[in-house]
Amino acid sequence: MTGPVSRARWWWSIQAYLALFAATLILPVLVFAGFLLWQYGEGERARLESAALEEARDIAQAVDDELGDLLSSAQILALMPAVRNGRFEDFYRLAQDVQRTLGIISVLRSPDGQQLVNPLAPPGATLPKMELPFDRAALTTKRSQVSDLFTGGVSQLPLFTVTAPVLLDNGEVNYLLNLSFSVERLRGIIARQQPPANWVVAIVDRSGTIMARNIRHEEFVGKPATRDLQENTQGREGTWNGFTADGRAVLGAYSRSQMSEWRVAIGIQRADLTAPLRHSLVWLSLLGAGLLSLSGLLAWLFGQRIAAPIQALADRAVAVGHGETVAPVGTNLSEIRHVGEALATASAKLREREAAIRESEERLRLAVDAGRMAVWNFDVQADRLIGSPELYQLFGFPPDAAPSMEEFRSRYYPGERERIWAEIRRAVEKGQHYIEIEARCVWPDGQHRWLLVRGAIYLGAGGAPSRLFGVVLDISERKRWEEHLQLLIHELNHRVKNTLATVQSIAFQTLRNATTAEEAREAMEARLFALSRAHNVLTKENWEGAELGEIVAQAMEPYEGYGTDRLHWRGPQVRLSPRMALALAMALQELATNAVKYGALSNTTGKIRIVWIVDANTSPAHLHLQWEETGGPPVEVPTRRGFGTRLIERSLAHELDGDVRIDFARAGVTCTVDAPLA
């Protein structure tokens, strides 16, 4: 590490500690102030809740007062002779006067709900039947009732009504008198109470439908209140948390009307509740930031007083790193003075050890130059091995592992450790100081690895090895290539012998069955070309096998001039051994030659179809391949089996260790192959 980097780290470290000390004094005060603000916020929340509840009570009381007046008006109208005696024309005129002057819609109905008089419709007009939920209560109790929100049958406006029973002298209900009012009347009640502009006030009927609202009244009248409001306002009065119909998060209060059981709900937006607290917290944060900045400034100033001797100490440490001798630091800080004196003493001792360090560096350089890989150092007397992380990886350990000697020895292939020590002893006996040994080890997963061990031998008292030092190289890949090369040489020798035997058999059978020299030449060339194409495919794959699809494509390539629409083959990818690949290539050549002479390719309409599948349900898996000719001239069963047919039925079956069958059907030749896959 260089001097400037060290100085920067020490300066920041001291100043950070001083700033932390100042922060420990300031932060508790800020936390306490924050607690007080939180308490204030809770108190303000409780005050607003109480104010909202009081406002809800006032509005509910105003609603009751209004409903009381309306009920009284309904009862007075119900006692008028025009109503009791059924003088509909007189009641119609009266209802029109009430509607014009007071905005009240007075409707007279029969006990079954049929409208008899409605000031909004002309006399004699057909009026709809209107059954309200509280009609039965009015008929049963013979007392006036207040309805929930409904839509007027004639006016089609959102209304609520006061229903008063019109009684005969015998106490029976003769008519039902409805005084219907627009919900604007309820909105006016809310407005007269003058709630704060940012409070949301709503009147909700017994079914949970919004009747009036101080904000966006027209948009929400007739819509259901939120589930939060309906579920949390079941009592007579109280507070609730949730959302308004327009999605505002609120903390609210509610109170019920005594006369109608309607709920007056008030919601105060949470943002309004927390605004004062947020404002105070912003000021507290600014104050805290200012105090912390001041503490940081003071920490920097005091750090300057401490930093100078530490800077001098750091400079001396850099000088020691360069091999210089340094003097103690002059300071009145005792701790730094003690460190300076220790540093001066250490600088003198370090000079004495420079020679030993240079010798050690030279040994390390020789080891690295020798191997450029994993470095190792083995102390024979202490039976201790010290190695680089690469050494542990070569033996199958994690780079940061610390394996014991027994764990190392367990990695050697059986007999390898004894062989290595025998090589070391022979080298010592010959006066050699360097070794180069190929050793094999076994990883925990069973994988074999080859290592090239190069090292120097250091002798102790009596001429016995006391220390070994060197490098290790992984030569597993080279070993695998050497083994693979030997395998290829053996395989080549084997394949050359087999190929010569195949050529000899082709020549013998072709010449024996040919009627003319020209026929023999053509047959010989075709079969040798088929063998050559199969060899090309295998050579490209290093004679490790070939894909069946490529073998078929190579075999059919000479016949593509007959039309690619006449040659069809398909099947999954199948890897064949060299033996199977050569046998199938020769068989396909014979089948194609026969098709050109006598079969599907001897005219202009015939087609050849090659299909293969793999049956994986058997052990081992089986290859099923079929050659099928269609559209050619009618097939005649041959009177004798030629070399091509015998090559396919006998040699192919033998090479594949399977079954091969040729069927000379009149519609076209078919050849079926069934063979196990190695």
UniProtKB/TrEMBL annotation:
Specify the PAC domain's residue ranges: 435-487
A Pfam family found in this protein is PAS_3
For this UniProt record, give its keywords in alphabetical order, as a comma-separated list: ATP-binding, Cell membrane, Chromophore, Flavoprotein, FMN, Kinase, Membrane, Nucleotide-binding, Phosphoprotein, Photoreceptor protein, Receptor, Repeat, Sensory transduction, Transferase, Transmembrane, Transmembrane helix, Virulence
Membrane-spanning intervals of the chain: 14-38, 281-302
Residue ranges occupied by any HAMP domain in the UniProt entry: 304-355
Q: Give the primary localization class.
A: membrane
- Tell me what reaction this enzyme catalyses: ATP + protein L-histidine = ADP + protein N-phospho-L-histidine
The protein's matches in Gene3D superfamilies, at most eight in alphabetical order, are given as: 2.10.70.100, Histidine kinase-like ATPase, C-terminal domain, PAS domain
Topology relative to the membrane: Multi-pass membrane protein
Give the EC number.
2.7.13.3
Protein name (Swiss-Prot/TrEMBL): Blue-light-activated histidine kinase
Q: Please name the taxonomic classification of the source.
A: Bacteria, Pseudomonadati, Pseudomonadota, Alphaproteobacteria, Hyphomicrobiales
